[in-house]
Amino acid sequence: MKTTETPAPLPAESGAPITKTDVRPPPVKEKKEGTVLNVFSHGVLVIWAFMVVMPLLWAVMTSFKDDRSIFSSPWSLPDSLHFDNWSRAWTQANMSDYFLNTVLVVGGSLIGTLVLGSMAAYVLARFDFPGNRFIYFLFIGGMSFPIMLALVPLFYVVNNMGLLNTIHGLILVYIAYSLPFTVFFLAAFFRTLPTSIAEAAFVDGASHSRTFFQIMLPMAKPGLISVGIFNFLGQWNQYMLPTVLNTDPDKRVLTQGLVQLAVSQGYKGDWSGLFAGLVMAMLPVLAAYIVFQRQVVQGLTAGALK
Amino acid sequence: MQHGKYRFIVGFLALPLGLYALFVVWPFIQSIYYSFTDWTGLSPEFKMVGFDNYSRMLDDDIFWKSLQHSLLFALLLPVVTIGLALFFAFMINVGGRKRKNGPVITGVRGSSFYKIVYFFPQVLSIAIVALLFAFAYNPDSGALNSLLRGIGLDDVQPLWLGDPDLALWAVMAVLVWSTVGFFVVLFSAGMASIPAEMYEAALLDGANRVTTFFRVTLPLLWDTVQSGWVYMGILALGAESFAVVQIMTTGPGGPDYSTTVMVLYVYQKAFRDGQAAYATTIGVALLVVTLAFAAVVMRLGRRERLEY
């Protein structure tokens, strides 16, 4: 390659005139390069796919085995499907309680995050008032700070308010920590919406809040869905906040409950039940991802792209 | 649109801003203040001690270990993860070669399948992923060692998480496993917006795939790579590394503190050892490291912006 004296072709210069003609690179060269690289790169792609899927399949497989064969032959197929692992995990290992707690916490905080986040984002994006920029940067500044720093005093703030080990306390904290990204994302979204419709509604006598709830919010639906999925996954998978703020065994959320279960398993030894619980916690999000694949990807990548 | 404007603004901002100030901003400010006290967190009494916590921190061997590990996480993990993800994303989006009557630029066969599967770990909780791999790494009955036995490597039976020299790498591998898919999808989105004419021009000039990648794709994708880099570094310093280290390694913190990272050390000092003030001091150090990391990456990554 003689790369030194020729700088990389600037696309804008070399791109335009050539596109019309149907050009192919010399066929001989293409073939030679193709085979070697193809085998190699396909191989790597397949291996990585295998490495992603195998641990998950292994977990599903193990959740149907009895304890003895888990230890004696980790990779063999289960001799028969032990569905009792699943029912034991659901009832005796409290997975049903953890599930319910998680649904309550995530449901409450998701609604709260979307309502409060869109209210703040709308005001910050569409109204000019003193302090607007300051409040906006105060919100988005929260995206880059390590949560752990605030966690120690936060524990005592929550404790003093009597909200420690409560579902609603956890909901309020989840909302507060979801606001930076939500406000950031939705403010950008509200700025792209046309102003004329809102103005027309206002001239027709609708109040500001009515304009917001009946006109702007429905128009922002695609943005709400993206940011909603982002927050759903984040809050469903949250581990650090409940670990610190929620130490009552009855109030545990799924991630926390499973980790606690694994720690105490050292003494009880119901490994098959534990694997069943693990798979139970994985399946809902994997299923949701496969169904809402496009929205999930949009919601998650929007966060890092902008 | 002036009528009742300020009442509306205050009404709409009060609740979100109040919650945010109470649970996020106020604790942040407090933590910096507490780092200058001798507060234990157990009793409400404390007094100002100036920079005592900071000088104690500089003499704390475990702090230095955790700082070292955190820096390793922040520097090495993004390199490996983003490198892998760039390769995968390039193969998936550009790596294919022309099939009859197809578009000139295309991914390898099965690319949409890869994109879906690679993303799987990203939707799982890092806590669940950590648990799963803690089992897989189990030296006696875990999937990894029995796989090694299965292919005849009976002598190679590492302790993985129990081996001080290996534990940190085993933990890092899990973070790579769980985040690569996200960046594949992120970079795919970036690559999709690069006009096909540029690739066609490069092909016409006789560029092979390696040249195409370094001369066309990477420069045009640079902004996305850079923000991905910062994002991954913050993840590796923060919540994700807390979960994997706390859940997976024995101790937790590994044999002889071989896997302790700064976030975990903050947590242990505050909630295990009853040294809340000292914990916030380490937290301030973590904040400094995070901001410095972001600043360095932004600075090093600055390039002339390419318009297309």
UniProtKB/TrEMBL annotation, chain A:
Task: Name residues in a coiled coil.
Answer: none
Q: Which GO terms describe its biological process?
A: transmembrane transport
Chain intervals for the UniProt region annotation (Disordered): 1-27
Any single Gene Ontology cellular-component annotation: plasma membrane
Q: Which UniProt keywords apply?
A: Cell membrane, Membrane, Transmembrane, Transmembrane helix, Transport
Query: Which residue ranges run through the membrane?
Result: 39-61, 98-124, 136-158, 170-190, 211-233, 271-292
- What membrane topology is annotated for this entry? Multi-pass membrane protein
Q: Does the keyword Cytoplasm apply?
A: no
- Which family would the database say this protein is a member of? Belongs to the binding-protein-dependent transport system permease family.
The name under which this protein is listed is N-acetylglucosamine transport system permease protein
UniProtKB/TrEMBL annotation, chain B:
Q: Tell me which UniProt keywords the record has, alphabetically.
A: Cell membrane, Membrane, Transmembrane, Transmembrane helix, Transport
Membrane topology of this protein: Multi-pass membrane protein
Q: Which residues form the ABC transmembrane type-1 domain?
A: 67-297
Q: Where in the cell is it found?
A: Cell membrane
InterPro entries listed in its UniProt record? ABC_transporter_permease (IPR051393), MetI-like (IPR000515), MetI-like_sf (IPR035906)
Q: Which residues cross the membrane?
A: 7-29, 71-95, 116-137, 166-189, 229-248, 276-298
Q: Can you cite a GO biological process for this protein? A: transmembrane transport
Q: Which SUPFAM superfamilies match?
A: MetI-like
Pfam families given for it? Answer: BPD_transp_1
Main subcellular location of this protein, as a coarse class: membrane
What GO cellular-component annotations does this UniProt entry give?
plasma membrane
Family note? Belongs to the binding-protein-dependent transport system permease family.
Q: Supply the name of the protein.
A: N-acetylglucosamine transport system permease protein
